[in-house]
Amino acid sequence: MKIKSILTFLLSVFCLSVSAQTVYSARSEADINMKVEELLAKMTLEEKTGQMNQLSFYDGKDVEKQFLQPLRNGAIGSLLNVENVEMLNRLQKIAVEESRLGIPLLFGRDIIHGYRTIFPVPLGQAATFDPALAEAGARAAAVEARSVGIRWTFAPMLDISRDPRWGRIAESFGEDPYLGGTMGAAMVRGFQGYSLTDENSLAACLKHFAGYGAAEGGRDYNSTNIPPALMRNVYLPPFEMALKAGAQTVMTSFNDNDGIPSSANSYLLKDLLRNEWKFDGFVVSDWASMDEMIAHGFAKDGKHVAELSANAGLDMEMVSRTYIRFLPELVREGKVSMETIDNAVRNILRVKLRLGLFENPYAPAQSIAYTDESLKLARRAAVESAVLLKNAGNILPLKEDVKIALIGPMAHAPHDQLGTWSFDGEKEKTVTPLRALQTEYTHVKYVYEAGLAYSRDLNAGNFAKAKAAAADADVAVVVLGEEAILSGEAHSLSSLNPVGRQSELLSAVKSAGKPVIMAVMAGRPLTIERNLHDADAVLYCFHPGTMGGVALFDLIFGKENPSGKLPVTMLREVGQAPMYYNHNNTGRPAPDNPVTLEHIPLEAGQTSLGNTSYYLDSGRDPLFPFGYGLSYSAFEYSDLSLSANSISKTDSLKVSFTLTNTGKIKGVEVAQLYVRDLVGSIARPVRELKGFQRVSLDAGQSKTVEFRIAANDLAFYGSDLKRKTEPGEFTLWVGGNSNATLNANFTVEE
Ligand code: GLC
């Protein structure tokens, strides 16, 4: 036995008798690392693998055998899904007071967009382009979760999503790496606060590492085929940005990328995360994503799973128990080194100590939920996440003396309005559009006729009543969309048209001859082109959360002015997927208005249409582009000027322009900055978002808006996987969406 392991062995034998009551009041990193080593030296191999074992709790049978006894043996390091705070404290008390070393449990939960107070789904929060608001919302969620003993959330989800067939697009920040990373970093700050030991702080978890959103065909869990440079330039930047915000944990993804499941991808978990990014928190698998490597055909059995994952640098196993079953044996066989185990346990203990878990392991006496502050924040988030897509004749905002016919399956859907991943939201608290009229907008005259009982309802038996209600009102407000279950994990769709008979309901209501306001509550961008002719105005609300209904009427009645912008391209047809703004130009970009089906002459010659990249039926363009959103105001961009026409590689460029509110009411515009590298060592996207600002302007007011863009912001990974800014010509645009036209050119010098 080597000297070092003899000393370790002797130290652990000596320390075995040490009381488990040592209470750590760790503060500095040096202090924390010292405590980690001290604790590690006392731990048996079984106790070490216990820390690497996370189980999902259930109030089922065998709690004693499944949980209490393993806790006393130090065989569980973390639990998720403990929903009862008394049970949580009971389990923690056993871990702290009845196990040999008293290492506290880390309780985790999916707090993705709120705990009790539910905020808009992350795709909706991305539409706010308001990181400060996302941060505040995450903080509000942390306050509620910490009040019931949860210390770790499996959020933010940072998967770039370019395919709305994928149900988890709802949980993402959309298609853009800069927006996704900015919002993700904001949520990390919100969850973790200024101090991890703060009574309201949670450890954040960046997921799903990596490339999960590129599931082929938008079919969840499917393989991804992301080449290295694309991984670096599109899928990884949000993780890097959010790690810089101090995220303490990372979760591996289900997908195999180019054949390698992330839970055993040592390039991701070691070369990149540890060696390049210097991450010193811990990595947890996704739910059984380790064990699923057998199904992937990447591991032959559970023991092989444990060996591959541990050696790839995966620290904690979520629920599939291969670590606790096989690691001791693998260490004894020399297939996994003790150093590997020790490093994993160090990462886990370090985060537990940083969270102050040893000093403060229990849930507080009093839970906190639905404070005025969190409800106000949720209302503001729901307002800002709504995207005004159409407003014919400026029909919106309405006056409050109109009579409304409130119609549609989402007009009173307290459960579904909360959206996916809202385990702990309570539908009784949801302010639906109907409840908003019944509680806050009580002076507004209305009639309510759902027309359909739920989004998938095929029963058109109430269409006539809905149409009659519209005929008897001044305006119809038709709220359509998706039940919550239709987006989120494992909920992919091959059609994005509004499900059921919602489109027919809308047409029936429109045939009453009154103006129609269509509001959509959904987890993804649906293909609504066919519905537009039946709607005079369209507000796209995603799933807006607890306060979504009152926020909708705040917007409809003009108490609030819409400012949301699309965080994801809205397709004309599902067959256009994947379609995203930051695409490469290809060698044959389609022209404006390419010839499409209805215009193709009979017996058209083979090359008569021109050979370029588009669809004969749905053309080149989406229905609405990334970054698009209207306002009750109108905004004009002018006087674009650059601080220089060329910059060195160490320089930065000041971009300034005048933004004017040419409308009649005060409004907020999300001004966006896009850049294109005209020639690169690999083809570069036609545009990339490099900045955005929410600018508030009174009617008629102008402001000079400035962006600063450093040459380093233009860097990308070439085929050599080296990040560099290449000299050459660039074009930048400023505007209110990714089709902005106001532009200027500049050069980056050699
Ligand atoms: C799920 C999800 C992951 C979640 C975890 C725990 O399968 O993929 O996002 O955090 O399991 O619920």
Describe the protein's architecture and organization.
It contains 21 helices and 26 strands. It is of the alpha/beta class. The protein folds into three domains: 3-19 and 39-216 and 223-354, TIM Barrel, CATH 3.20.20; 386-556, 3-Layer(aba) Sandwich (Rossmann fold); 635-748, Immunoglobulin-like, CATH 2.60.40.10. The chain has a six-stranded mixed beta sheet, sandwiched between helices. A hairpin with a 5-residue loop joins β23 (716-717) and β24 (723-724). α2 (29-42) packs across α15, α7 (131-146) runs parallel beside α8 and α13 packs across α14. The longest helix has 17 residues, at 338-354. Mean pLDDT is 96; it is low at 11-26. Bound molecules: alpha-D-glucopyranose (GLC). The site of alpha-D-glucopyranose (GLC) has 7 residues, from loops.
Q: Which regions contain 5 or more consecutive residues with pLDDT less than 50?
A: 11-26
The N- to C-terminal Cα distance equals 58 Å
Structural class: alpha/beta
Q: What portion of residues belong to β-strands?
A: 15-25%
Helix content: 25-40%
Count of distinct structural domains: 3
User: Quaternary arrangement of the chains shown?
Assistant: single chain
Bound molecules: alpha-D-glucopyranose
Largest sheet: 6 strands, mixed
**If helices are DSSP runs of H or I spanning 4 or more residues, what is the number of helices?**
21
CATH topology of the largest domain: TIM Barrel
- By DSSP, the count of extended strands is 26
CATH class of the largest domain: Alpha Beta
